[in-house]
Amino acid sequence: MDIVLQSTILCPVCGHAETETMPEDSCVIFYECRQCGTMLRPLHGEDCVFCSYGTQRCPDKQREAQGKTS
Ligand SMILES: [Zn+2]
Description:
Elements (H helix, E strand, L loop, with lengths): L5 E5 L6 E5 L9 E2 L6 E2 L8 H5 L5 H7 L5
Antiparallel strand pairs: 1-2, 3-4
The structure holds zinc ion.
The site of zinc ion has 8 residues, from loops.
């Protein structure tokens, strides 16, 4: 199993990219951009800001993609 915990969030408002470490077993619903302070929320159909704006999907989705839902 190869779960990546680092994801770079790209702010859709100011374009700032920030690498964050994702919690392994919970989704992140809100994320405040460190540059412009915009509160990001998941896009429609997503349940996690990392899935919506990050370079990596959250650990839950990565596990799902690998067919290893617990
Ligand atoms: Zn921003």
